[in-house]
Amino acid sequence: MAVAAGKTILQHVFERASRATSLSQLLIATDDERIASAARSFGAPVRMTRSDHPSGTDRVAEVASADPAEIVLNIQGDEPLIDPSAIDALALALLDDDEAPMATLKKRIEDPQEFTNPNVVKVVTDSRGYAVYFSRSPIPYDLSGQAIHYKHPGLYAYRREFLLGYSSLPVGPLERAERLEQLRAIENGHRIRVVETEYESLGVDTPQDLEKLKRLLERSFMED
């Protein structure tokens, strides 16, 4: 398991998420005993799940089915620099919006290379702040030269009732084409509230990502 600054990536995520003031409970859901063992080693609560879930949302839904929480957040385990304030903003988005069963974040794209990178998911929203579409392709196409482009950090909040029914929603052609599970909600007529954030996501998916994380953490410790 990847280690940076003496801690696993998972421990970095858990400790930063623990600083969010909106969470009444934080636990790690996994079907892998190695991850569970690593989580228990630093005192994190663990919930073992089935191994046949097609997405992270389905895994979170299994956990939520045994918990009475009204709002459930899905925090990715590969986001070691997750901003606690972004978590709080996302939870507040659903508390303040009775119309939305689901919420997520958007971050303004500063690096032009990210706009054309299919691994960076883009999002466009309507005038009320609801998602119109998510795509791996550059959206919107900018003939005016004035469009602001946003990417989508992989952090979600759900109302419990909606989350429990999520797995039974049919997978549509857009989700299959883009391989983006949040499109399942849009294709089935559900709104997704999108909140703008300054949180700069850093998912650790490659050895290069890990080296970048180590440099960032070393710089942070030196500044402290």
How would you characterize this protein structure?
The protein is of the alpha+beta class and 224 residues long. The protein has a single domain, classed as Spore Coat Polysaccharide Biosynthesis Protein SpsA, Chain A. The protein is 35% helix and 19% strand. The protein contains nine helices and eleven strands. Strands 5, 6, 7, 8, 9, 10 and 11 form a seven-stranded mixed beta sheet that branches. Strand 1 (3-4) and strand 2 form a beta hairpin. The longest helix has 17 residues, at 207-223. The chain is globular and about 55 Å long.
User: If you average the pLDDT, what whole number results?
Assistant: 88
Q: Report the biggest beta sheet as strand number plus sense, adding barrel if it closes.
A: 7 strands, mixed
Low-confidence stretches: none
Quote the CATH topology: Spore Coat Polysaccharide Biosynthesis Protein SpsA, Chain A
Counting helices, strands and paired strands, the structural category is alpha+beta
Order of secondary-structure elements:
EEHEHEHEHEHEEEEHHHEH
What is the CATH C level class, in words?
Alpha Beta
Gyration radius (Cα, Å) is 18 Å
Give the helix proportion (percent range).
Answer: 25-40%
Number of helices: 9
Proportion of strand residues: 15-25%
Number of domains: 1
Terminal CA distance reads 26 Å
Which CATH architecture would you pick? Alpha-Beta Complex
